[in-house]
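Appendix B. One record, verbatim.
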Amino acid sequence: QEQADAVIAALVEAAPDRPLRPHRALRHQFATAAEAIGVEPAILADELRDGSTIAEVATEHGVEVQSVIGAMVAEVTEWMNKAVAEGRITEEQARSGSPERPSGSPMA
């Protein structure tokens, strides 16, 4: 539970400081979480609006929280590896989770 909440908190903190609007990276992470749990994103959204955490929804659907976290981390890792390969971020930025958001970043 704590680890799942930490992942969500990190995603929210990494979001830009501007009015909320659909955000590609967060949408992808949300969709990844829903897929890992085995529910439609709309169902996950309803559960979250009702006060549940992603970890609680996963548990309610018989899915280990760590598998949801793993899926979300894998998606970010894949993006970072691709961004390094394409020269959009440095390896150091990828390793450090630099707050600088390069062009094309899903967190930009």
